[in-house]
Amino acid sequence: MPALASHRRIRSRSTKPSHAVGFTTAALAGAALLSTQSATAAPSDPKPSVEEVQKKVDDLYRQAGSATQEYNKAKEATAEKRREVDTLFEEAATRAEKLNESRRALGAYAAAQYRTGAVTPTAALLFADSPQAYFDQTQLMDRMTDQQRTAVTDYETRRAAAAKQRAEATKRLESLTDSQQALRISKEKVQTKLAEARTLLSKLTAEEKARLAAIEREKEAEARRRAEAKAKAEAEARARAEAEAERQRQESDQPPLETGTGTGDDAYATRADEVLAFARAQIGKPYVWGATGPSSYDCSGLTQAAWKAAGVDLPRTTWDQVEVGQRVATADLLPGDLVFFYDDISHVGIYIGDGKMIHAPKPGENVREESIYYMPIYGSVRPV
């Protein structure tokens, strides 16, 4: 009996501490795990600096500008295909009407044959009022047979042409549908870039926006210094080349080089005055991507409309406008010249003199005058 009691006491002591230790160990392990996770959890992304926001927004606007040119190009292509499809369907409708005329002619011949029935030459001669009447009727039927053959041939020709026209119109319509899809994609690409830029700017405080404006001014000043240094170097190089040409002329005892009468420059200046008058009248109107006026513009829409007012037709996109006319150096810019920006040639403005231009800047802003050194210059063109 004592041994049994001793056995029970030992079992009782060994059971209860076992549960307590197990629970405590699990709790400690859980606490340690939570502590470790808190210590190693990735901190939230730090808020971008104003400089980073400025760089990102500029890049997004530049990308949106490039996407806008893609949109403009796709829009032009789509409009051209729409005109082609409309023309083809109009021609198909005309061919269908001519086909119906041929079908009606065949129907008339078929009805005539049905009314007269199939009569043998012998029976026709017997039933004729006279041999002469028989021969007259036979000659008439021969002519009708020739007309029937011509009608059948004409019908088959027109049917084949109409089928070909319908097939071509259907093919062009499918191509138009593809172009419209590309147009939607270009539009979505622009909208996405602009939405990203707006979101970044909306998160800035008033102080940060003031800092951003100061950064913009610093950027413009630096760009001006770089452009002026480049223009000075170009002017010095040109002066050296002219001096060398004059030295060689004097050594060879040739007459002075003619510089022209200035008539061409005067004509250009007259057109440029018309371009600038139009552009100044648009100041204050909003930038809207894909717009060509008269109430709003994108950058190339404004330059196209301004030069059209002077009687010169420019292509729609910056990528095509930069290929028109004569390339000019920044130092040689004249009022009316087109100045293009960024390596992807996604922006353009109209030079007005004194290092300034009129342009449609970007969404949310209006047509205005601004320094050409605000953005990196790609190159410049004199349209005529």
Which spans have pLDDT < 50 for at least 5 consecutive residues? 1-42
The helix/strand order is: HHHHHHHHEEEEEE
Largest sheet descriptor: 6 strands, antiparallel
Terminal Cα span: 124 Å
Proportion of β residues? 5-15%
Mean pLDDT: 75
- Class by helix and strand content? alpha+beta
Strand order of the largest sheet: 1-6-2-3-4-5
Q: State the total count of DSSP E strands.
A: 6
Radius of gyration: 42 Å
Number of DSSP helical runs: 8
Q: Helical proportion?
A: 55-70%
> Overall 3D geometry?
elongated
Would you write up a description of this structure?
The structure is a single chain. With 384 residues, the protein is α+β, with helices and mostly antiparallel strands. It is built from 8 helices and 6 strands, in the order ααααααααββββββ. Strands 1-6-2-3-4-5 form a 6-stranded antiparallel beta sheet. A hairpin with an 8-residue loop joins strand 4 and strand 5. Helix 2 packs antiparallel against helix 4 and helix 2 packs across helix 5. The longest helix has 72 residues. It starts with a helix and ends with a strand. The relative contact order is 0.09. The N terminus is likely disordered.
For the structure shown, list the relevant keywords.
384 residues, alpha+beta, six-stranded antiparallel sheet, 8 helices, 6 strands, 7% strand, disordered N terminus
